[in-house]
Design goal:
By secondary structure, the chain is α+β, with helices and mostly antiparallel strands. The chain is about 30% helix and about 40% strand. The protein has one domain. The strands form two sheets. It has a three-stranded antiparallel β-sheet, with helices on one face. The mean pLDDT is about 85.
């Protein structure tokens, strides 16, 4: 899943800390959904980028 992160962020999943840097990132779907739900990231829609 492609996401855009505005600032350094980290999430804990099953006792493991996962850190992500700012900017566009390719992350696992699970990590992406958690960051988006928490308000740290926004999803990048692949179809819209391909059509431009």
């Amino acid at each position: 899943m492609k996401i855009y992160i505005e600032k350094d962020s980290s999430v804990w999943i099953n006792g493991k800390e996962i850190k992500v840097a700012p900017g566009s990132q390719e992350v696992d779907d699970e990590v992406g959904r958690i960051l988006i739900d928490a308000g740290y990231a926004k999803a990048i829609d692949e179809e819209k980028r391909k059509n431009k």
